[in-house]
Amino acid sequence: xxxxxxxxxxxxxxxxxxxxxxxxxxxxxxxxxxxxxxxxxxxxxxxxxxxxxxxxxxxxxxxxxxxxxxxxxxxxxxxxxxxxxxxxxxxxxxxxxxxxxxxxxxxxxxxxxxxxxxxxxxxxxxxxxxxxxxxxxxxxxxxxxxxxxxxxxxxxxxxxxxxxxxxxxxxxxxxxxxxxxxxxxxxxxxxxxxxxxxxxxxxxxxxxxxxxxxxxxxxxxxxxxxxxxxxxxxxxxxxxxxxxxxxxxxxxxxxxxxxxxxxxxxxxxxxxxxxxxxxxxxxxxxxxxxxxxxxxxxxxxxxxxxxxxxxxxxxxxxxxxxxxxxxxxxxxxxxxxxxxxxxxxxxxxxxxxxxxxxxxxxxxxxxxxxxxxxxxxxxxxxxxxxxxxxxxxxxxxxxxxxxxxxxxxxxxxxxxxxxxxxxxxxxxxxxxxxxxxxxxxxxxxxxxxxxxxxxxxxxxxxxxxxxxxxxxxxxxxxxxxxxxxxxxxxxxxxxxxxxxxxxxxxxxxxxxxxxxxxxxxxxxxxxxxxxxxxxxxxxxxxxxxxxxxxxxxxxxxxxxxxxxxxxxxxxxxxxxxxxxxxxxxxxxxxxxxxxxxxxxxxxxxxxxxxxxxxxxxxxxxxxxxxxx
Length: 628
Known about the structure:
Layout: E1 8-13, E2 17-22, H1 38-49, E3 62-67, E4 73-78, E5 88-95, E6 101-109, E7 112-121, E8 125-130, E9 140-158, E10 163-168, E11 174-179, E12 189-196, E13 202-210, E14 213-222, E15 226-231, E16 241-259, E17 264-269, E18 275-280, E19 289-297, E20 303-311, E21 314-323, E22 327-332, E23 342-360, E24 365-369, E25 376-381, E26 391-398, E27 404-412, E28 415-424, E29 428-433, E30 443-461, H2 482-487, E31 509-510, E32 514-516, E33 525-527, E34 532-542, E35 548-555, E36 560-566, E37 578-579, E38 584-587, E39 594-599, E40 609-610, E41 617-618, H3 621-627
Antiparallel strand pairs: 1-2, 3-30, 4-9, 5-8, 5-9, 6-7, 6-9, 9-10, 11-16, 12-15, 12-16, 13-14, 13-16, 16-17, 18-23, 19-22, 19-23, 20-21, 20-23, 23-24, 25-30, 26-29, 26-30, 27-28, 27-30, 31-40, 32-39, 33-38, 34-35, 34-37, 35-36, 36-39, 39-41
C-alpha cells in the first residue's frame, strides 16, 4: 500500500469534512511507504476482492453501515446524537423528488427542545447539517419535518474521527422497540438512547435479554421533548445483551456501542417489531475481517433459526439453531463461510430481531446494521461521501432465482448524477464503489432494480488522531538524509557515525536505521508513532563508557519499528502490551539520539545489516521526514 504523508493545514468544504491543503511547496513532505509490504498488500488485495476497498482512502480508521429504506417520508426521528466534548453529529437529508422541499428540525436534548436547522432542499439533491451549529449537549435527538417526502440519516464521529457511526432514521414512534446487538463485557460499552419528541412524559422499562435469560434493566420517566441515555453495564455484564424497550407512549430508540477504549464505535436503530425473515447484504470473513450475526428472540417460545450464506463462491449453509425465549445468540460467520464475501439470509419459525456486526483492521473499526426484513425494487440511502479519502460502497444481494438488473442514481448537492449499473446473478451479492462515479462531499443514493433485492451502504474514512506523530519533539538537530549528513559538517569526512540509513559502521556493517537527535537531548521522551503492540524489549548495546542502551520493537500493523538507544525501560513495557499513538515508551539515553528502524510486518527482532540490504528492512528516511 502506498501512503502519502503531507504537512497540511485544514480547510472546510461542504458539510465541514476536512480537506487537506498544502502549506508551501518547499515544506511539503511526500512519503511513500514500501509498496512491497507483503502483509499490507495482501490485506489490500483481500479487501478489494471482497468489495470492501478501492481508490478511496489509504487507511480505514473508521467505518459505518446503514440499511436502505424503501420509502421517503415527511417525518423522521433520530434518537442518537452528541455535540459536546469533541463529538460531531451531522444530519443528512436526501430529496429524491422532482420539486424543492422545505425542511425544519427540532432537537430534543437532556434539558428540553431546541430549534434546529431550517432549509429548502432542491429537487434530487442532498444537504448536510452540523447540529453543533445549533446546540452543544451530550444528549441530542432530532425530529425532521418536511413539506414533501425525504430520506434522513445521521452520522456521528468522535476522538478526531478515530471512530464513526451512522444510522437511518425511523418514520414513526412506537411503544415497543427491540435492539439485538449489545455487549457489556470485555471492555465494551453499550448505551441505549431513548428519544421522547412528544409533549407529555413517557415511562420506559428496559429488559435485557442475554444468552442465559432476561435481566431487568433501567426504568425511567422521560420528560417531554428530551433524550435519555442508559449504560447497560450498570444492569448486566455479558457478551450477549439484547434490549427490549417498553414505553407508555411513542418513543424512538437506538443503541450505541464502543470498544477498545472507544477506538471503534457502532450504532443502529431499533426495530419496532420482530420478523421471521431478514436480509443482510454486507459481510466479509476474509483475513483481518470479522462478521457476526446477532439474533434476539423476545418471544415466549423457542425460535428455530436458519441462515443461508450467499458468498462469491456460491451458497453455503449457515447456522441452524434453536434460540430459547428471552435470549440472545451470536454467530461467527467465519465458521461457516471462511475467507469469503458473504451476504446472509435469516429465516425463523417465529419472529426474531437480527443485526450484523463487522470489524476490521484488528478491530480498528466496526460497523453494525439490522439489514432489511423485506425485499424491494427501489431503495434510498441519504448518506454518502466520495471526496477527501472517504469511501462509499453499495452492497446489494439478490436472493431470488433470476438475474436482476440494477441502476443507481446519485443525488449530490449539485443535482443528480448517473451512478453504477449492472446485473446481479441469482443468489449472489454485488458491491459498487461510488467513488468511480462522482467526487462529492454530499452523495445520496437511489437504487432501482428489475426485481426485489436487499441493499446496504458502507462508508469508510480516515481520522486525524491515528495519523502518525513524530517520535521525539521538535525537528532533528542534524539531518538524516545522506547528502545533508555528509555536508553538514558535524561529522568528519568518512565518519562511521553518520546518522543516515545505510551509513558505514565498524567493519562491513551498515546503519540499519536513522539516528534522530532531538533538541531536548538526553532524557527526551520517545513516543509511539502510532498505536501498536510491543513485540520485543531488551538491551540494544553497551556504549564504550559502559552505559547500557535499550530498545523497543513495536508492531504498528503495516510495519514493525525499532526504537533504540533508550534509557532503561519501565517495567510495564513488555511483549504483548498495546501502546497508543503518542504514548511515551522510553527516554533518549546518553547517546543524545533515538535510533529508529523499520521492518516489514511479521518481524520479531531487530538485526544487523551486512552486505546486501536485508529484504525485510525498510529505509525510514522519507517516512521520518514526513512526520516533521
